[in-house]
UniProtKB/TrEMBL annotation:
The lineage of its organism: Eukaryota, Metazoa, Echinodermata, Eleutherozoa, Asterozoa. SMART domains: FBOX, WD40. PANTHER family: F-BOX DOMAIN-CONTAINING PROTEIN (PTHR14604:SF4), WD40 REPEAT PF20 (PTHR14604). Pfam families: F-box-like. Residues 49-95 form the F-box domain. Gene3D superfamilies: 1.20.1280.50, YVTN repeat-like/Quinoprotein amine dehydrogenase. It comes from the Eukaryota. It comes from Patiria miniata (Bat star). This is F-box domain-containing protein.
Amino acid sequence: MTQPCMHVRCGHKGAHRIPTSFKMTSAQGDAHTNDVDVVCQSEPSTYSLDPVDYLPNEILCKIIGFLSVEDLCHLAVCSKAWRNVTNTNSLWLHLCKLRDWERFGTEVDLRKEKPIHSTETRKWGSIPTFQAESVITGDCNVKDLAPTCEWKEVYMRAWHLDRNWSEGRYREHHAYLPVRTYYKASSVASDGRTYAAGDYYGFVRLLDFNSGRFLRKFQATNSTRSQILKIKRASMSRKTKTESDIAIHHMHLKNDIGVAVFKGGMLVFEGSTGNALRRITPSKWSDFDRYLPRKSYFEENKIIVSYNWLDFPLHIWDISDLVEGVDNGACTETILHTETSEDNPHPEASYHLLGCHGHFVITSSLSHPEFLFWDTRTPEIIRIYKGHKGNVSCGHLDENTIMTGDNAGEVKVWTTASDVCMKTLSEFPPEVCLNSHFHHRRINTVQFTDKVIVAGSQSRIVVWSRDGILLNMEDVELRSTSICNRLVTCTRSPELISVWDLSTGKRLYRHEFELGLLDLLYTDDTRIVVQVGYNRLVKMLQFW
């Protein structure tokens, strides 16, 4: 049912009145502030025949607690008194919790999310910007109306944002990359505000999204001028970009902290300024500078790097002190390494990084149907999981659950407390698996939330409920996925960005790119950032 507008300023006078002695207490949920109890007064001489006016306070609170948001909005326009009754923090905090919107009043403040200058509005000319005048504040010149309570404002803003995502209302913002930044880029990253590009010669360039202004160029590696010139000459002779030992292989940008990973080390820097925080290089007895970084994660202040040489251990650096701004802070290094044993006969192929969460990491082999579960604090193997038909190719985990995909087109669900498989989900029917090439069946990515499981292969994306019920399946060539308040997918064929509803698994809408889509760079609660191929264009879709 369509919800009515919650932007109610006042109600007509003289409908339902509440006795002078009436005082609201908490309805449902936890009280947020002491001002949730609103005294609604009327003239003592007023006589009402409405029995609701004389119900005990506790009963009235319970009745209001059962009302839907739509009913509460209708009730609020009956009179000023009823508007005050429904304008309580405890009531709207409970409603925010039901929609998983509590974080918009604790972690994410939509009042501080200012729309950047936009070049184009999509969705039939409607604008996604929230109308701030719908919220009554103490500065509003509205007589006798109390300000909108804090958690009702949170609900109003979150509801508006949810509608923007569901209906595809957004503004487009374009930023064109400098020619040198685009053609020399070997790895890119974005945090939604800054664009960072590492190049083949060990340099990083920063671009500000809001202004489109080039910020800074700086060297991340310790390469000498002669080394750089040698690579440039080789590249010019081949008339194409070439893989080099001094190239930036991976870029990360998160919460104003940037990480540039290259052969032999990495640079940690401030994302908005490029100021170096720490250049991490191999210790005297380490030889990890001999190998090219294959895959890297930057999660929870930890940098995890795996290498192209599969028998070379994973390296983990904890940079919490750098992130928190501690002077001369420590940068702790941990190496994951295992030796041959009866439980693990294939140590030389056990360092393919699948995923990480907190202190836990999962790794696999590219030639054996098993994966390892590590505790980085020890660092030791907690458990070896076996049971896949094909080689384990991807994975995702949280505190309690591990999900992995393999080359045979299957997703398996495990717990962190046991090596017993809880559930197996198949992307293809058995008869298709027998006749299709393994590259088309291989699960390249698997992610899950508390509501859905998402898996993608070279030819298909599948969405299941957490109970294993198939919700949706589409034949597309999946490039990457990201989950925020919606599932966002980037596909190669056709080249488009799609937004999916996590509760139903249905695709809400899609955005096609005429010039070709290069990559999905960033998503959060209010925006999507993509790089469009072959014309130096970075595009932001802003839903707020």
